[in-house]
Amino acid sequence: LDLDTAKQELEEFIPHVRNISDSSIRKMAGRDLMRFKQFKKQGIAVKFGRFSQKENNQIRKNVEEFLSITGIDSAEKLLFTSRYPEDKETINRLKSEHLFCEKLSKDIPRPWRLIYYRARKMFDPNNYKGRYTKEEKEKLKKYHALHGNDWKKISEMMSRSNLSVAMKYSEIKSAINYGPWSKEETQKLMHAVEEVIRKRMETEDANSLSSLEKSKRDLLIDREKLYQKLPWTEIEAKVGTRYWRQCKQRWTTVLTNKMTKGQQLYRGTKGLQAKISLIKRLYEMKVEDANEVNWEELSNTIGDVPKTYVQAKFYKMKVCCVPLWQNKTFSEIIDYLFEKKLPELEEKL
């Protein structure tokens, strides 16, 4: 396919495809377009966002099958071939001969690149090493002073994953305030979020809206843009005194207060009713994994709040009310809440 045709055909499955680089579009046209069309014939939509447990299991199955076909020793060798320079040529030849791209993405309706990144995260032995020691934090600061944001190089020196070292450095690079948020900090956060949202909207609207429409658009921000996929490390840098995760949590609190006009949704009678509604709706959904839940829909069930607020409340309820919840599947947790906790809450109400 020529580039324009590829963009046009991919747009049906990936609405934001015209914001993707030309080289990435060419790769997607080769790796994904035929797969997406096959999924469409089966009535299956292309997915984005967090991977479900079912998808994770399919990735494991696909990797294990590929290892058994090719005789490659381990998933680490398959997915991190550059760590094994002596075997690199053989592994790359086997990948090519046995159609690695096709086999890895089998039965998973997502762009191949996202499946590959997810597989690397799942099978990277450097990704699950627990808390950083004081010595590791000092090493990380030293390596960053030498190599800047070359996280690939630093991750190899630290024997940690790229994502892990980048996120940890973000946390420790400066004196972080862990106390209550001041009024000035909250104002900085609100200005930072406004700035990144406006910048994003201006980019999106540059070629598509007239000046009159642009002035009206300020009043019509989709509410999802207020909390989904915000660049938190950029916002962290603008706030200056808080770690990115703190910024994200504080912004959820600010949004919730504004959307509910300061009402305490999870206190007293309203709190009981919200918990009851949440348990009932989760039970009715009959999903097997938390990643398959439509949290946006649930947020409307208990009030006009961000979906992250609802996810946080569900997590707290799960931890407080379900014994040994870590050993239970998502559906078992929901069944327990419905059968054991729901009658208690209804009686209390």
UniProtKB/TrEMBL annotation:
GO CC terms, sorted: nucleolus
Domain Myb-like: 124-172, 173-255
Domain HTH myb-type: 124-161
Protein name listed in UniProt: TTF1 factor
A Gene Ontology BP annotation from the UniProt entry: termination of RNA polymerase I transcription
PROSITE patterns reported for this sequence: HTH_MYB (PS51294), MYB_LIKE (PS50090)
Gene Ontology MF term list: chromatin binding
Organism classification: Eukaryota, Metazoa, Chordata, Craniata, Vertebrata
Domain of life: Eukaryota
Gene this chain is encoded by: Ttf1
Gene3D superfamilies: Homeodomain-like
Native source species: Grus americana (Whooping crane)
